Amino acid sequence: MSTPDIQPWSRIEFEQQLRAMGKRYHIHHPFNLRMNAGACSPAQIRGWIANRFYYQFIIPKKDAAILSNCDDRATRRLWIARILDHDGYDDYQGDAQGGMEAWTQLGEAAGIARAELWSLQHVVPAVRFACDAYVDFARRSPWQEAVCSSLTEMFAPQIHKDRLAGWPSQYPWVEEQGLTYFRTRIPLAQRDVEHGLAVTLAYFTTRAQQEHALGILKFKLDILWAMLDAIDKAYPA
Question: Fewer CB under 10 Å: which end of the chain, C or N?
């Protein structure tokens, strides 16, 4: 337990503490390790894609919930881009198609029909529960805390790079054009982290607040880990 007389971390120290939470990221989950080693079956890959799609499905709702609580105009102007990143914008073609469309193309490249993916019929209850809990957190929390929870994006670029490096040879039956999602998310994650960190470092200034921020980030990391626990159980080797 922290006490009021404990000095807060400096901004540099606080950021180091946040980044150190990467040891809990689901890149280290046994299912992800097997997937990156090329050891998953087609059924497991398709099961992962279908269930992870539900996470893509709720992200715009989560971001809209943050906007609904946010009274800072500058933050709203920046944060709305995240909704468009997933839902798409302009003519919805090419880079403007959005993350949900890119993930749909991943599903199709792996043999999952668009209608089948969007029906959510393969989403297991624990994955749905975890994702819905994340949306509920964003609705009920101060917007700065919900922003802090998004900082799992700090750890995302490497997991995307791993898939881009390994999947073409490990899972050649997945058409390579389906990997667009992983490629496009790398620069977007880096952009989002810059803004999310700025909000978090400015808002959580006492030691108690900083430790609370670590707890928020752990909560989000636990959601991602729990999703893979559920997928791992639903699609055994």
Answer: N
Using one digit for the tens of pLDDT, what is the confidence trace for 2-53? 455 699 999 999 999 999 999 999 999 999 999 999 999 999 999 999 999 9
CA dihedral 48, 51, 56, 62 (to 10 degrees): -130
Please tell me whether the overall predicted TM-score, pTM, comes out greater than 0.85 for this model.
Answer: yes
Given the candidates 1.10.3720.10, 3.90.1640.30, 3.50.50.60, 1.20.910.10, the CATH classification of the domain at 11-234 is 1.20.910.10
End-to-end alpha carbon distance in the chain: 42
CA 27 to chain centre: 12
Pairwise CA distance, residues 107 & 2, whole Å: 46
Mean per-residue pLDDT, 147-156: 97
Instruction: State the residue for tokens 């949306």.
Output: 135
CA dihedral 196, 198, 200, 205 (to 10 degrees): 180
Which CA distances in Å does 137 have to 189, 199, 204, 220? Answer: 21, 18, 18, 10
Checking phi first, is residue 90 left (phi over 0); if not, alpha (psi -120 to 50) or beta? left
